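If you are new to this repository, start here. Below is one unmodified record pulled from the training split, so you can see the exact layout before writing a loader.
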Amino acid sequence: RADVAVCVGTGLGELGNTYAFLENMVRNDEEQPKPAAFINSVHNAIAGQLAIHLGCKGENHTFLNEACSFESALWQGIHLLNSGRAKTVLVCGVDELNGYTIGAERGLGNYRHSNTPLNPLSSNESGTLPGEGAAAFVLTANTSTNGLRIATRFRPLQRRDPANIDEQIRAIEVSIEKSGLTFENIDFMLFNADGDAPHDAHYAQLRVAIDGKLNHPMPCAVFKHATGDCHAASAIGVELCCHVVQQGRHADTIRWLTDFPPTSARAGVFYNLTRTGISAVTVVST
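And here is the target side for that same chain:
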């Protein structure tokens, strides 16, 4: 399996083990460190364990690019296939939930102190709620998984301003065109909205602009009401897009903001607008 590569996207890695390792060193005055705890604390531990367990001896990559960590891993996986450096790539997105993560994110003001249910694109509250999860994809030479075609593209917005709607639409349009499709071929969009009202407002503005461009409502959906938020949540979003396109129906964890198209979906877009101004677009099609 020398031609099987592994690409993992994780925003924070195994942060629980990292803190546990450091905490143990502090409490013991940097004496008697635990080697096993150190090995499990590094961010690429997940990719390494996958390779060992599955016997994948190809290239091994871990990406820590905050909210677009998974898209970074997916892009690298596609690049490895297109360049002939691998014949098969296992692409994963994973983040864990632990007390250290919750404390840090609440300290930064990203997580709510209340446990009111998340209601993406329909909330008046600031902040989101913690979540965790993982999703994995096996890509082959035609950049497909289970017979589907996947392409991803991301770039910083010029003004690093999430409200720059025209530039966002252009970024989505270029990504769709790179997949050999047009905006009119897209049957639905799934947003990475997380229930934080100020940030979700950008998705709402984008949705209105897309409807105006197409002269009809684009079926749109969200999913974090069911999963909570984590840096690698976009991996779950892309998996749900694949489910809709492949099964011809929506998963139970998707909440539609409009009526689902009456015909079977053949192409969908997962859109991730990060707080740092990076626009990440993943196109899934048959």
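Two things worth knowing about this chain: The two ends are 28 Å apart (CA to CA). The longest strand covers residues 148-156.
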